[in-house]
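Please go through the sequence line and token line underneath and see whether the fold suits the sequence. See right below:
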Amino acid sequence: MNDTELLRQCHTIFPGHRARTPAELFAAMAAWSEAHGVEHDVYGSGALLQEFEAKIARLLGKEAAVFCVSGTMAQVTALRLACQDRGRELVALHPTSHVFVHERSNYQLLGHFKALQAGERYRPWTVADLAALPDRLGAVGIELPLREIGGQLPSWDELEALKAHCRERGAHLHMDGARLWEAAAGYGKPLHEVAAGFDSVYVSLYKGIGGLGGAMLAGSREFVERAAEWFRRQGGNLIHRSPYVVAAAMGFDARLAAMPACLERTRFLYRELSAYPIIRVNPAAPQVNMLHLHLPVTPEHALAIRRELAERHGIWMFNRIAAAALPGTSSFELYVGDNLLNAPDERVREALALFARALAAGRQQAP
């Protein structure tokens, strides 16, 4: 069996939300569309789309929001416009920013702006990290939470200080809020309070929400309208956004309502992991419903363990895995969603015990 087939036969799945087949997802979308009398938008004009954009804007406390086909397009467009407005081409970003790590140098190769790394890779920003840059910044981009370091957040007081620093410095403050839904639960604050003080906010319609894809960019009405025009110029003017909006909207409220429970389940998992020091966890305590687990075996060995647990015990521990900094080690991201939320406690404990036992045996076999 390939990995997809193997995953489908597992009864205890640790990462993410329950995966629906295309047939299941499309059937659910069709039923929801029928129940709500959904009509296609045409190049962004349509009741469903515009009502959902207005809903996102209200939740974030912004004047307006606009759909974008991808967060990659939304973010570099927002940062470029911010720099143009201020006549300053420099953007400060964390070393683990999505712009640096996952966007294939688009900001550089397409001439959007120039970027500076601020702060240290393995911790969230402080005001001192930004103050250490003497340059006149056009914009500052902050990711909440920082995915590449296990979903860490700056403290609430530090976040407020960062907002004030950017305001005093005259720099546009942009949020990479791909996981803002999770960050709000981590702070225990409503979305509009977290987003307050940011000039623009990008949010994802599939990460955490479970949609097909797509994003929203929120901010002032004038800024959003200009961004929308640039989305068109960059090839983002889809004739129908409705499939993306339906896929996100039909489960949106339930997903947001479940975020605190997902965070509490992550805390439960963290407590259970403390019994197995062979598995190292980052961060030191959960800040959102995400953890990074570090293993004392190579990625290849970890994948072999995953297959064995899936075939023999119906347990699926992780999706993607990568080599870690130390030789012979690996790590993976664990996003806690419906799967772990609905798994019985004893089943989770049994899976962790089997996983730790296999890792211990694998470490002994390593050369």
Notes: The chain has 15 helices and 13 strands.
